[in-house]
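Listing S7. Sequence submitted for prediction.
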Amino acid sequence: MNTTTVKENRLNIRCDNHARQMLNKAAAYAHVSVSEFILSHALASAEQVIQAHESITLDPADFEAFLAALDEPVQANAALNRAFDRHNEQVER
């Protein structure tokens, strides 16, 4: 079965001649269009940036402390409420 993705959005960028030549050459080596080359590499970079900002890596001792803290009941205080407000302002869902 052949499925086609509908591309509803356009993205325009400006660059100098050197940048365009580099992109043309790289896309030719990859056997894709310049648009496909730019989009695939921009998406890969975007995934890395998002992963870096939306994941947490802990060493085993810190992970155990984190799990223990999750088991403890907490009372919301002003600082926690401010943190939730900042989170809601910064994270787009």
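Caption to Listing S7: primary sequence and predicted structure tokens for the chain studied. The chain is about 65% helix and 0% strand. The mean pLDDT is 92.
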